[in-house]
Amino acid sequence: MTAKQEWIDVAIDALDKAYVPYSHFPVGACLVTKEGKIYQGLNIENASYGLSNCAERTAFFKAVSEGEKEFSHLVIAGHTSRPISPCGACRQVMSEFCEPSMPVTLVGDNGVLKEMTVEGLLPYMFTEEDL
Asked: What is its EC number (predicted)?
């Protein structure tokens, strides 16, 4: 098994762990550090919808809370007919912690994939240079 397939499997595995009693729309993520450490993320909903957290941000916040700030790849998986698309908030978080050229793999049902970059997901991103 390739490393990339392992990352895809980690993201897909997270779908079963997601806490989605309201939307019934699970999302899983696998964030990989430059050293190869893996952080799994899943979406966690709340009855007060604004307090929910996406899978991608869960993975980033777990990693950053453990001192990680250099990442090499992100995989996002969902039960969608086409590759899942991350929300705008998650795209902005990606731009905070990732190089614009970092690969992002989007995964839908039946193994359908789309390869992107952080910059491809959020062109003309807001960065520290804009402050």
From this structure: 3.5.4.5
How many CB atoms sit inside 10 A of residue 56's CB?
Answer: 28
| pLDDT tens readout for residues 75-99 | 999 999 999 999 999 999 999 999 9
Torsion sign over Cα 47, 50, 51, 54: positive
**Can you tell me which residue has the tokens 């993975």?**
59
Task: Summarize pLDDT for 34-59 with one digit per residue, the tens.
Answer: 999 999 999 999 999 999 999 999 99
56 an active-site residue?
Answer: yes
Residue identified by tokens 């453990």 is 66
* Sign of the CA dihedral with 30 first, then 65, 26, and 99 last: negative
CA 41 to CA 18: how far, in whole Å? Answer: 9
Exactly one of 6, 56, 68, 115 is catalytic; name it: 56
Contact by Cβ (8 Å): 125, 102 = no
